[in-house]
Each structure stands twice: as structure tokens, then as C-alpha cells.
Design a protein that fits this description.
The chain is about 70% helix and about 0% strand. By secondary structure, it is mainly α.
């Protein structure tokens, strides 16, 4: 799995220099992080809906879309897959492979504020 994500990451990085008229990835990268985040959220919601409806094949396909959009956002944010793998290994050492770190272990200063995903829509409403 990590190899597939690493290859996808390399392809997305290469697409930064591609022609946006012929590359969907290049177009998405140029659209900005807000658009990328919106696409990622949409795919996550589709995975959830398909899972709740018991549509296993659709969950598989939408999960692939979700991973693609996650990697695109990683590239825009300067995140390397190896850094995510290192964090997963760190968490596994602390909590075990199937556990997420409890919220109370997160430094209060590291908490994120909520931001609008599509600022253009927010401006149009006012």
C-alpha cells in the first residue's frame, strides 16, 4: 500500500508542471487548497454514504478517489508520505496499530481552528 501511495505522490508532484488543460491533477493543484479540501471532503462523504448503504464495491472505488484527493492535498501542503508513515509508526508504538491517539494527548496549542473551504461562496452571500 505504501508503495502505491508513494508512486501516486510522485505522479501528483510531476503533475504540478503538467498542462492543466490536459491534466485533471494539474487543474486541481492550480485551483487552490480550498478546492482540494472540498474535493477531499466530498469523497469522504461518498465513502461514508456507500458504507452505510452496504455498497462494498462503491466503497472501494470511492476510497481510491479519497486517497487520490488526500495525496493531492498532501502535495499542496508539502507533506511527504514518509512523514505520514513515520507518524503512524510512532502512534503504533504508543497505542497499538488499531488505536487513534486520544484527544487529551494533543497539545492544546496544536488544535486547529475551523476555516471555510470555499471562500468565494462566503463572499457571495454577503
Amino acid at each position: 500500500m505504501a508503495d502505491s501511495i508513494d508512486r501516486l505522490h510522485q505522479a501528483v508532484v510531476a503533475a504540478e508542471r503538467a498542462d492543466p488543460t490536459t491534466s485533471r491533477t494539474a487543474r486541481l493543484l492550480r485551483a487552490g487548497r480550498g478546492k482540494m479540501a472540498k474535493k477531499l471532503a466530498e469523497e469522504a462523504i461518498e465513502v461514508v454514504i456507500d458504507a452505510m448503504n452496504g455498497q462494498t464495491d462503491a466503497v472501494v472505488k470511492e476510497s481510491a478517489d479519497l486517497l487520490y484527493n488526500l495525496v493531492v492535498l498532501w502535495v499542496a501542503a508539502g507533506v511527504q508520505p514518509k512523514d505520514v508513515w513515520a507518524e503512524m509508526e510512532r502512534r503504533e508504538r504508543l497505542m497499538g496499530i488499531a488505536e487513534k491517539l486520544p484527544k487529551h494527548t494533543v497539545d492544546a496549542g496544536a488544535r486547529r481552528k475551523i476555516v471555510a473551504l470555499d471562500r468565494s461562496r462566503a463572499r457571495k452571500r454577503h
